[in-house]
Write a structure and sequence with these properties.
heterodimer, A: alpha+beta, Aldehyde Oxidoreductase, domain 4, 3 domains, six-stranded mixed sheet, 16 helices, 27 strands, globular, B: alpha+beta, Uridine Diphospho-n-acetylenolpyruvylglucosamine Reductase, domain 2, Enolase-like, domain 1, five-stranded antiparallel sheet, four-stranded antiparallel sheet, 12 helices, 12 strands, about 20% strand, binds flavin-adenine dinucleotide
Chain lengths: ~700, ~325
């Protein structure tokens, strides 16, 4: 494709916007059952962190008019044993089959489901079911040395997690200056505005599930395994998703519980997770403690870097937060040690959350780079440019496009970096003002995807693919792609997604949907164009094609290049000198994410991503009760995400250099790139304003008083 | 949520009678606090008595002597935007607007605001120990997460902070809460309305079961024109106070003639210390005097693992607010 595009690269407004703003978009929890047969399910959750269920007392619930049934491990054969570690048709972060036995691994584990004719009765029944436990000793704290500690070799995306390059001790000995510090990040939750919701409907031996999932094909395969059906007997529909940020990425037990309940009762079942259910049912960003040592020559050349991460997983989950990833790719440093350890704790199972590993890891690394710059007396923008990896340090392959230094320069210009003073020196009234910078990045991933494109005689088209738009703008991007290839306008292209009966696409995670679908869509359009040349024009013509190739996982591919997006985030902060309250009047992000297919939806993604980073920097923390292991603030009133009043000017610029090696439209993913570097940029700005280095997120006013 | 019956009261006497007849009944005004707690299973009334149809309880009137009479059903928004309130009692308006959100303030009533429940994380948590929710069960906050909790007026049984912004200017201004029950009417000074937790933290207010708040009276206070409410919190909006200050000050020839000062986020009840005010009166209006007054308020505190910073923060906030106000005071 040439660089001259007609529809691609234009700020097309979202084609699903009207449906969403007028209530025409139906979400998974909105599905009405036509015959009024719908049953409502409410989860009964464990209230202890470890032990065994000794028994249920359901007497009171059973008295309630409208109560239908209670399901638990006592209904043993309800769900087929899923073989999560060995079944590669699906990915889960919680590997235990729900209701498989009476063991309890954390507070909030699903131990039963109350089913009733109305939601109100189901809630009352669930609350009235008494559970007797035999409690076991529990492990709650990250530094609980009595609990198991894993050292996994690879992350979920295939990245090596224990890495030794060169000779760290020698590099440290060679250095003129070094910094060593420990950084911590708390448990955080995704908090999409739409809670997870499943409506399951059986028709004979076929199962249809309306599910709020970021990965409908993955979900279908999980549900097939857990119900003992063939994949083609299960259909998952998810045309609209109200955000996910990772918590709807992999499949979770509640979907399977709803499907099993619908089978057991012979009626459609709807299970909408409550907000507090959302804190224990579908993952979180785990707490991390990261120790970094970074050393350099007096001219700033890095000589040694060690990045050690301690995080946690649940006894029945396998997620490891790969915080060391940025240390493996952002800078040239000949002597590198990266380690990861995972404590097994009786807390709910973690899962990827926007920028998993990268965001927590970049907070630590990019803070350390700032600390080193200060100690060296070198401008932090300059220090980053001096050490920016010119090639992928993992394999010495060139980056497919490389604008890391340019992002830093442009960002510095836009924020007015030359105004920056030494720490604590810029005062205006009661406020201390500071500027900070951090590099941001995100790996470019691509997964197999197929697509079917149909052209109708009236010169309108339809594209069908089983992917999902989690609120990012994929509907619009797909229409633009097809319009570009077929010579139509975006408005002429109908988009059908969110249905596993369509050609299969990837899950919406790892910022890879757009990059993944473009191969299949382009190929299907090319095939269609060939048919079109031969066709009469009186009949609809259709073509289906797919790309089979995965790219970017574990840094591996056979193209001789590495694919990764870089960017730079700059923050201006104003800190009240007495109260420590931080305002962020301006954030600047400059990003190199390949060709920007739609600057309007892309800008929204970057702004949203940076606001996500503001939350991480300043507000978000799920408090873990140290005694019980309970998440103690499971509501949007008490778990703080940014509100409008926290957000001021956000300035986004794209380099917009197409990456045609990556895919036919030249685009890399953007969903996570805005989040990764934002927290450290803010923390570094806070240091510049106040002279106080906060190494524990979130940054709170009492850190700065 | 437990099933409940909804009845509508036509008059205050009607509401009082319904309450008296039913131990399991509660009044509902805006419902912004009560309904949340019912959803959490913390409040489980069998009957709700809707008082919104009672007429004559929404007025905000200013008397000739400059006092305010505010009906219990006036919405938080209506009071905050009332021109007399804004002009003569700016800290009342500012305190309301610093709380909750526009939507909630539009629904919330003045009476309900006075009686809103605390925001300790453990209070709504069914399986936590909380002496307010379940007398005798214990207090998980003392050894647990207590960032939002109090440092003044706590007991070994409860450390929850009173969360109301509105109550602070009302406390500073010696507001009077008018109530009516089956035995007739009473006027309760606001300082007597909220009770310290002591060893009965579940016994929160000096109201009998059959009594309903009908109005809030704010006595005239010429210095209240020069008043301010400052709220410090982790999030810029839609968050309860870590620390807040409601203050009015009169300064004549550089000398403090009168101070009214209440501090939020720090006390188990809306906190005011008249001794501190008295110590400031007659002093030059300087940061030293404000700081000395603040020290008196916090002379006897008990801090917990996560909230000790509030003491310093509150002192600084008091000094800042009083300094700014006395700069303006003619
Ligand atoms: C998300 C959220 C954020 C909030 N943030 C803040 C904040 O930052 N600052 C702040 O101060 N407040 C805040 N609030 C609390 C809010 O101010 C109160 O919920 C509101 O004022 C209660 O008024 P209501 O009329 O809705 O009371 P209701 O919920 O109807 O009632 C509350 C209680 O008062 C009783 N009651 C009501 N009216 C009377 C009466 N006339 N006589 C006797 N008893 C009565 C009820 O029986 C009930 O026990 C917040 C609330 C929410 C939901």
């Amino acid at each position: 494709m040439t660089e001259q595009t007609r529809v691609i690269g234009k700020p097309v407004s979202r084609i699903d916007g009207v449906l969403k703003t007028t209530g025409g978009a139906h979400y998974s929890g909105d599905r009405k059952s036509s015959d009024g047969a719908l049953l409502h399910g409410v989860l009964v959750k464990s209230t202890v962190a470890a032990g065994y269920i000794a028994g249920f007392d359901t007497a009171e619930a059973k008295q309630m008019p409208g109560f239908v049934r209670f399901l638990s491990y006592e209904d043993g054969d309800l769900i087929y044993r899923i073989d999560a570690p060995n079944d590669d048709s699906f990915v889960v972060n919680e590997q235990r089959t729900p209701f498989i036995d009476n063991q309890v691994h954390f507070v909030g584990q699903h131990i039963g489901l109350a089913l009733a004719e109305t939601l109100e009765v189901a809630e009352a029944a669930a609350a009235a079911i008494l559970v007797e436990y035999e409690e076991d000793s529990r492990h709650i704290a990250l530094d609980d040395e009595d609990s198991d500690l894993d050292k996994p070799d690879a992350s979920g995306t295939g990245e090596a997690l224990q890495v030794h390059r060169g000779d760290f001790d020698e590099g440290l000995a060679d250095a003129d200056v070094s910094v060593s510090a420990t950084y911590t990040t708390p448990v955080e939750h995704h908090n999409p505005i739409e809670p997870s919701a499943t409506t399951a409907v059986w028709d004979g031996d076929r199962l249809t599930v309306y599910d709020a999932t970021q990965g409908n094909v993955n979900d279908r395969n999980y549900l097939a395994a857990g119900t003992g059906l063939a994949k083609d007997q299960v259909r998952v529909l998810n045309p609209f998703i109200g955000g996910g940020f990772g918590c709807k990425g992999y499949a979770w037990p509640h979907s399977l519980i709803a499907a099993a309940a619908a089978r057991a009762t012979g009626r459609p079942v709807r299970l909408v997770l409550s907000r507090s259910d959302m804190y224990t049912s579908c993952g979180h960003r785990p707490q991390t403690r990261q120790s970094i040592t970074l050393a350099a020559k007096s001219d700033g050349t890095f000589t040694a870097l060690k990045h050690e991460t301690l995080s946690h997983r649940s006894p029945i989950g396998d997620h490891m937060e790969p915080c060391g990833m940025p240390s493996m790719v952002l800078y040239d440093c000949p002597n590198l040690v990266v380690t990861h350890s995972n404590r097994v704790l009786n807390r709910p199972s973690p899962t990827p959350m926007r920028g998993p590993g990268e965001a927590s890891g970049a907070f630590a690394l990019e803070s350390a780079v700032d600390e080193l710059a200060e100690k060296l007396g070198i401008d932090p923008v300059e220090l980053r440019k001096r050490n920016a990896s010119q090639m992928d340090p993992r394999n010495s392959r060139p980056w497919s496009t490389f604008n890391h230094p340019e992002c830093l320069d442009r960002g510095a210009e836009r924020i007015g970096w030359s105004r920056r003073k030494s720490p604590g020196q810029w005062r205006e009234g009661n406020e201390l003002v500071g500027l900070g910078v951090a590099t941001t990045y995100y790996p470019a991933y691509r997964s197999p995807a197929a697509a079917r494109v149909t052209l109708f005689p009236d010169e309108t088209a339809k594209v069908e693919i089983s992917v999902q738009d989690i609120g990012t703008g994929l509907y619009t991007i797909l229409a633009q792609m097809v319009a570009e290839k077929l010579g139509l306008e975006a408005a002429d292209v109908a988009v059908e997604i969110g249905d596993t009966d369509l050609p299969e696409g990837p899950l919406a995670g790892g910022s890879m949907t757009t990059a993944s679908v473009s191969g299949g869509v382009a190929a299907a359009c090319d095939a269609l164009q060939e048919k079109r040349a031969q066709a009469s024009g009186d009949e609809a013509i259709s073509a289906e094609a797919g790309s089979e190739e995965s790219l970017g996982f574990g840094g591996d591919n056979d193209m001789g290049k590495s694919f990764l997006s870089f960017g730079a985030i700059f923050a201006e902060v104003r800190v009240d000198k007495d109260f420590g309250i931080v305002r962020i009047p301006r954030l600047v992000g400059v990003f190199d994410a390949g060709k920007i297919l739609n600057p309007k939806t892309a800008r929204s993604q970057m702004i949203g991503g940076m606001i996500f980073g503001v939350g991480m920097a300043m507000l978000e923390e799920t408090f873990v009760d140290p005694e019980s292991g309970r998440f103690i603030n499971p509501s949007l009133g008490e778990y703080y995400v940014p509100v409008n009043a926290d957000i001021h000017d956000i300035d986004v610029e794209f380099i917009d250099e197409p990456d045609y090696d990556f895919n036919p439209f030249g685009a890399r993913g953007i969903g996570e790139l805005g989040t990764v570097g934002t927290a450290p940029a803010i923390a570094n700005a806070v240091y510049n304003a106040t002279g106080i280095r906060v190494r524990d997120l979130p940054i709170r006013l009492d850190d700065l008083m | 949520m437990r099933e409940f019956e909804l009845v509508r009261a036509a008059s205050v006497a009607d509401a009082a009678k319904s309450l008296a007849a039913n131990e399991d009944a509660k009044l509902i005004a805006g419902g912004t606090n009560l309904v949340d707690l019912m959803k959490e299973g913390v409040e489980t009334p069998g009957t709700l008595i809707d008082i919104n149809a009672i007429s004559g309880l929404r007025d905000v009137t200013m008397s000739d002597d400059g006092g305010l009479m505010i009906g219990a059903l006036a919405s938080n928004s209506a009071v905050a935007w009332h021109p007399d309130v804004q002009e003569h009692f700016p800290m009342i308006s500012q305190a309301i607007l610093a709380g909750a959100t526009t939507q909630i303030r539009n629904m919330a009533s003045m009476g309900g605001n006075l009686l809103q429940k605390n925001r300790c994380f453990y209070y709504p948590e069914e399986n936590a120990r909380c002496n307010k929710r379940e007398p005798g069960s214990g207090c998980d906050a003392i050894e647990g997460i207590n960032r939002m909790c109090a440092v003044l007026g706590t007991s070994e049984h409860c450390i929850a902070a009173n969360p109301s912004d509105l109550c602070l200017p009302l406390r500073a201004l010696d507001a009077i809460v008018h109530v009516e029950g089956t035995n007739g009417q009473r006027a309760i000074p606001i300082e007597k309305l909220h009770k310290l937790p002591g060893d009965t933290p579940y016994d929160e207010v000096d109201l009998r079961h059959d009594e309903m708040i009908t109005a809030i009276e704010v006595p005239p206070s010429p210095i209240a024109r020069n008043s301010h409410y400052r709220k410090l919190r982790d999030r810029t909006s839609y968050a309860f106070a870590l620390v807040s200050v409601a203050a009015a000050i009169g300064v004549e020839d550089g000398i403090i003639s009168e101070v009214r000062l209440a501090v939020g986020g720090v006390g188990t009840v809306p906190w005011r210390d008249e001794e501190a005010e008295a110590a400031m009166v007659g002093q030059p209006a300087t940061q030293e005097a404000f700081s000395a007054g603040a020290a008196i308020i916090f002379r006897e505190t008990k801090a917990y693992s996560g909230n000790g910073f509030k003491i310093d923060l509150a002192k600084r906030a008091i000094v800042r607010v009083l300094s700014e106000l006395s700069g303006d005071a003619k």
